[in-house]
Write a structure and sequence with these properties.
Layout (H helix, E strand, L loop, with lengths): L1 H35 L11 H16 L7 E3 L3 E3 L4 E4 L1 H8 L12 E4 L22 E8 L6 H10 L5 E4 L1 H6 L1 H9 L3 E4 L12 H19 L5 E2 L8 H9 L3 E2 L4 E2 L8 H11 L5 E4 L3 H16 L3 E3 L1 H5 L21
Parallel strand pairs: 5-6, 5-11, 5-12, 6-7, 8-9, 10-11
Antiparallel strand pairs: 1-2, 3-4
Helix pairs in contact: 2-3, 4-10, 7-8, 9-10
Keywords: Membrane, Transmembrane, Transmembrane helix
Pfam families: Polysacc_deac_1
GO cellular component, one term: membrane
């Protein structure tokens, strides 16, 4: 009997001794999880909300990036601005509240628009994006080279690249299916004049006619009106810039020329681009045999430099978010011939 009583006492003492451990177990697990994250901060108990807010605010001070205003550069003319990034404190705390610890990967950011954007600048050509974007844009001027377009589109698709195709209006009118194929692949569409003239030889009225006629054709074909203008051969003057601006369009040129129209060997063309490429560059090409055969290697070379490849519209946008062109293809295409 005494032995049974003694056993009961020992058992009771053991249970009492384990209670603190059982009570603290959830907090121990929480602490272990917090230690896994170098910046994790325990915030259990009543003051947790205040501590969590404090942790997020301190992190925001280190991670917020101010916006950059658009500007007119002496060499590069109009240079787009770039949105800043700011930690959304309320949204970040809300995401972390469930676990009660600060975790960097749960931070929520929001964009802060610059005070001066590209649209605020006076009419001026654009040669490049903002240097803060670690991306480049592909600009493909199309007035011929139909036989190479499907393969070029296929290569771009294989790499998940959305480029910009600047279409001559006359070409788009005569090659409706190819124009639609380009748009249906999600590529950005620009205006490359209607008849490929020397824009510097035109009056403002004539320049506007070239631009407007192409806008009408392109919109009729793919349901998307171009918002930027690429002058043929890069030839422009102040009249050209003003004519485009009065039609609500920005004149876009390039910083890296593949000179594929000279029919270089594909590897030579790729080496040229690899040598000249830089962040925010616009790379000019055409639907040529050189581009068709060298595009795959060109993309790989650029991406090896940790540069993303995007469209002109995305590169010139102040937003840091990726953008993909949306095309609404119309079946009721008609142009009065």
């Amino acid at each position: 009997m005494k032995q049974n009583a003694l056993s009961m006492v020992i058992y009771f003492v053991l249970i009492i001794g384990m209670l603190p451990t059982l009570f603290l177990l959830p907090h121990v697990e929480q602490y272990v999880e917090a230690v896994k994250d170098k910046e994790a901060i325990m915030v259990s108990g009543e003051p947790s909300e205040d501590k969590l807010y404090e942790a997020v605010r301190k992190s925001a001070e280190k991670r917020n990036i101010p916006p950059v205003n658009a500007r007119i550069d002496r060499v590069w003319k109009a240079v787009p601005g770039l949105a800043g990034l700011e930690v959304d404190i309320e949204a970040s705390v809300d995401r972390m509240r469930k676990r009660g610890v600060f975790e960097e990967h749960l931070l929520v950011f929001k964009e802060v628009q610059p005070e001066v954007t590209l649209s605020d600048l006076p009419p001026s050509p654009v040669y490049k994006g903002n240097e803060g974007k670690n991306k480049v844009a592909f600009l493909i001027n199309v007035a011929w080279g139909n036989e190479y377009i499907p393969d070029i589109l296929s290569t771009l698709k294989e790499h998940g690249v959305h480029a910009s195709f600047s279409l001559e209006g006359r070409w788009a009118r005569e090659n409706i299916e190819l124009a639609r194929m380009i748009a249906q692949n999600g590529h950005d569409i620009g205006n490359h004049s209607y008849s490929h003239p020397d824009m510097t030889s035109l009056s403002k009225a004539e320049a506007k006619k070239e631009i407007n006629r192409t806008n009408e054709v392109v919109e009729a074909v793919i349901g998307q009106r171009p918002v930027w203008f690429g002058p043929p051969s890069g030839a422009y003057n102040e009249v050209t810039i003003q004519a485009a601006a009065e039609e609500g369009m920005r004149t876009v040129l390039w910083t890296v020329d593949t000179i594929d129209w000279k029919k270089p060997k594909p590897d030579e063309m790729v080496q040229r681009v690899d040598r000249l490429i830089h962040p925010a560059a616009i790379v000019l090409m055409h639907p040529t045999e050189s581009t068709r055969d060298g595009l795959d290697a060109m993309i790989e070379k650029i991406e090896a430099k940790q540069l993303g490849i995007t469209s002109v519209s995305a590169l010139l946008s102040e937003s840091r978010r990726p953008q993909v062109a949306e095309s609404f293809i119309r079946d009721d295409f008609y142009v009065d011939r």
